[in-house]
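General statements about sequence and structure are easier to judge against a single worked case. For one protein, we set the task of working out the structure tokens from the amino acid sequence alone. The sequence in question and its structure tokens are set out directly beneath this paragraph.
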Amino acid sequence: MIFLSMDRRIAVLIRLAGLALVSWSVVGASKDAPGTAGRGLVVTILFVLSVAGALIWIAQSDLDRPLGPDVALLAIAGGALVGASPNSAASAYVFVAVVSAGIRAGHVRAMQVTAVATLSLAVTVLIWDGGALGLLAYALGFVAAGLAASNVRQLRHQAEQAELLLAQSQRSQEEALRAARLEESTRIAREIHDVLAHSLAGLTLQLEATTALLENGADTETILTRVRRAHELAREGLRETRRAVGALRGDEPSTEEALATLTAAEATSLTIAGDASRLRGDTGRAVLRVVQESLTNVAKHAPGSEATIAITIGEGEIVVVIENRLTEVPVAVGPLAASGGGYGIAGMRERAEALGGTLAAGPTETGWRVELRIPSPDGARR
């Protein structure tokens, strides 16, 4: 059994040494040694066949190879040689055959090889009037060796299955970790996009307006007002960035206060119907970011239009509707409309789907409408 984990070349050398010792015991037997006539001739023939089978077995010893003529030679010739030369170690040939059958093919084939070897042994025992007790002892020994070898086969198979399951488990864990990293990367990218897109859009509008005022020779107070507004937008961007970092770390900001601050800065109408304490965690963050992104899109594509936000918080669902209505006097769309990577609506929809909700966005007769529907968290926070 030790040969299973041994280097092949070393195992071959050891097997050849074992074959030499067994062969020496047969050739040098004090009684019933190989000869050229009578029983000695039979021993010679059986000995040659057994050695031939052993050499084939040594040369092609592979656990995954099916049983071949080497095992049959060892079982038949070896079994007969045990009865013809009982004073030698010829039984080793049979044990090799039985053990090989058990390890390679299982207990059924091991018992078949045992039966063949025992029958061959019984023939020579009857011919030369050997002892029945010896025949029984050898038969029991062959059976025990075959069962032990088949147990080794089962243990080897179980070890291979365990290694396979372990490898599959490791692959599953790696895939889960990779998916978690991808999800976290997507979440971070979404947060960064929402914060920067909103802050930079407003800041860019103010800077463009300030540039236009300077080019048109506006008075100092008007220009200072625009500059102060740009400073306020920059500070608001920093606050939003800190809030996003806090959300990524697991902190839970007050969504209601953030919405009030956001809509006040944008001079946007906000109405909240229902229990505002339900706007927390991922739900509150999704509502805030959808409102923020929608207002950014209004500033990009419809500057000067009026926007309204209506949030309805029910027992089973939260509905957020953001609409903007174009003014009677159209406002020229500046280069800000072409800014961004085009991920705004896609990011909003990802947030909604991640919470089991939906998001619809599209034009209306008077402007644009965004509608978010997400499940409401169970119960209000105590």
User: Anything to note?
Assistant: Residues 132-215 form the longest helix (84 residues). The chain has two domains: 2-170, 254-382. The two ends are 68 Å apart (CA to CA).
